Fold this protein.
Amino acid sequence: SYFELSPAFSEMWQLVVPCHGLDLEVSRHPLTMKCVANLIIAMERIKASISEPVLSTDFQDEHLLSIMLESIVEEQTVIERTAAPAQFSRTGELQCSITDSQKRDLILVQSSMELHAVMLQGGSDDRKVFLNMATYVHPTPIAEARPVALGIKDTNLYLSCHEDGDKPTLHLEVTDKNSLLRVRADSEMVRFLFYKRDSGLNISTLMSARCPNWYISTAQDDQQVVEMCEESAHRYRSFNIQMLPSGGAWVCAFVNGTV
């Protein structure tokens, strides 16, 4: 009878066990802790049942166990966990009336799909644009700023900021309202979000969430397109936005300022 260990070790070891007809061979590779533990238990049982000394070799059980323990490669299971992507979550929606610091209203020019700032004459109020302003919770809140999405009332058109080359531009895009319930911070949908930042008592600006330091603004001249601008531009960057009554009427305003 013999005990054979292969191929986990570089050499073949044989151990004669004085028990007729007993052959024990270890051939599992690579070794695992469970395999080693089972083998040790089996060997201890064999040793307990045999009172005669080991014959024909100087290789002892202690040597075998030492080699086996030195050859163990401990297996570890690594589970990769990634944090859920940061996202903006909508908290509510309010209907608003909007004017710039020159008391100009915004109108929609259908032919170009643009917003223009216009001083409306009496009887032209039906051309005025009203907004649905959705508010959001920022994944990492910014002091004195809150994310909002701005849609034109009774339409599925929303203001969005794109980068055309190195200059961000303001657009009106058709999108599903439900697609803006939650906006991942690393998604393209961030183009629909703007930071409402208060710069004084009831004074706010609307900065693009996608293009930092670029603001929704109106020109100094009348009947000009509403565009994005940097803080240094000679444009009006603040807006007076008055909330429309809905159920219990309450009013909030963004009072306009100039650059």
